[in-house]
Amino acid sequence: MAYAEEDRNSYEVCKEAADWLRARAARRPRIAIVCGSGLGALADVLDSRTAFLYEDIPHFPRSSVSGHVGRLVFGELNGQPCVCMQGRFHSYEGHSLSTVTFPIRVFFLLGVEILIVTNAAGGLNPHFQVGDIMFIRDHISLFGLGGQNPLRGPNDERFGVRFPCMSDAYEQDLLSLAMESAQELGFLSFTREGVYCLQAGPSYETIAECRLLQALGADAVGMSSVPEVIVARHCGLRVLGISLITNKAVMSYSSQEKANHEEVLRVSVLRAEALQKLISHLLGKLGESTNSL
Ligand SMILES: O=P(O)(O)O[C@@H]1C[C@H](O)[C@@H](CO)O1
Ligand SMILES: Nc1nc2[nH]cnc2c(=O)[nH]1
């Protein structure tokens, strides 16, 4: 099927990819997990795994960033049927926002109910430490505020309404369960909650920009997740967002710190196991609470 790039996430194109996957995956996933930079190992611990390279799935984009393998992995985590994106798409790679968010609509058509987005982010909150896990309470989209929204263009009601609400983008019940999980695992000393700010990248922020974002109320800054969350909420998925604070944003001209992707990947890998435990524990709770949530 030929289509213009901005039409990649049309209902028909997404359905072709979903139908292809449904014919090959053993179970319908209930939960989709997007693995952030350096966090892809989560997909390797799924039970009863079936993996598909993005290049083999109809219409799937390719990922080009180090730390993003480029596979969709189906399986079970703590008894819950899941699908993991081992590698996501970013706008700075040159992808349109419809390409960046295409997998989310495919997940919706596969019957996914809950989306967990993870990312690596720079900490703006002065109380945050490198290695902290931040549950996303809310976001600031510098894209959206500047006129770039993944829902721009004709609206297809089969996905959702023209004007979706975003004040409840990150579900309180999921956030509470995630916090409970952190407590039960003894992770509270490095667990936070906060506001994630999206900037386009690929360059990291200047010092003046970090100061501005902090003054705006952002606790962490990154280059992903928000378009995925907007499209997920548009089609009614419940969303949990998790940022791993891989570096502290540089706030002072006397600092010798310099943000770099190698450091981001190094810290992600160090915390990957804790994050796997946390998500696995949370999924166990979601299994127990299927009827109440
Ligand atoms: O995919 P995520 O948001 O985890 O990746 C972050 C943002 C950039 O892609 C990269 C910068 O180091 O890490
Ligand atoms: N924009 C941005 N993205 C990141 N991803 C990981 N660390 C950072 C950071 O400091 N800034």
TrEMBL record:
Pathway: Purine metabolism; purine nucleoside salvage. Its EC number is 2.4.2.1. GO terms for cellular component: cytoplasm. It comes from the Eukaryota. Pfam families: PNP_UDP_1 (PF01048). One of its GO terms (biological process) is purine ribonucleoside salvage. Keywords: Glycosyltransferase, Purine salvage, Transferase. A purine D-ribonucleoside binds at E205, N247. Residues 30-283 form the Nucleoside phosphorylase domain. It catalyses: inosine + phosphate = alpha-D-ribose 1-phosphate + hypoxanthine; guanosine + phosphate = alpha-D-ribose 1-phosphate + guanine; 2'-deoxyinosine + phosphate = 2-deoxy-alpha-D-ribose 1-phosphate + hypoxanthine; 2'-deoxyguanosine + phosphate = 2-deoxy-alpha-D-ribose 1-phosphate + guanine. SUPFAM superfamilies: Purine and uridine phosphorylases (SSF53167). Phosphate binds at S37, H68, R88, F89, H90, A120, S224. Gene3D superfamilies: Nucleoside phosphorylase domain. One of its GO terms (molecular function) is purine-nucleoside phosphorylase activity. The keyword Glycosyltransferase applies. The keyword Repressor does not apply. Catalyzes the phosphorolytic breakdown of the N-glycosidic bond in the beta-(deoxy)ribonucleoside molecules, with the formation of the corresponding free purine bases and pentose-1-phosphate. Preferentially acts on 6-oxopurine nucleosides including inosine and guanosine. Homotrimer. PANTHER family: METHYLTHIOADENOSINE/PURINE NUCLEOSIDE PHOSPHORYLASE (PTHR11904), PURINE NUCLEOSIDE PHOSPHORYLASE (PTHR11904:SF26). Belongs to the PNP/MTAP phosphorylase family. NCBIfam families: PNPH, PNPH-PUNA-XAPA, PRK08202.1. This is Purine nucleoside phosphorylase. It comes from Geospiza fortis.
